[in-house]
Amino acid sequence: MKVLFFLMAALAAAVPHRGTGGNNNVAGRAAPHANRGFDSTYKTLASRTTQNEQPQTIQDVSHLIEDGLSFIRGQTAAINNTLASVADGKITKVEASVQVASAIGTVNIKLSAILRDVLGVISIRIDGDNIDKLLSDTEELLSEVLHTVGGAVASLGLGKILSDGFEDTIKVLGELVKALDKVIGKDLPTLVPLLVKSLAGLVKGLRKGLLSPLLKGLADVLDCLAG
Question: What digits encode the pLDDT tens for the residues 147-157?
Answer without folding.
Answer: 999 999 999 99
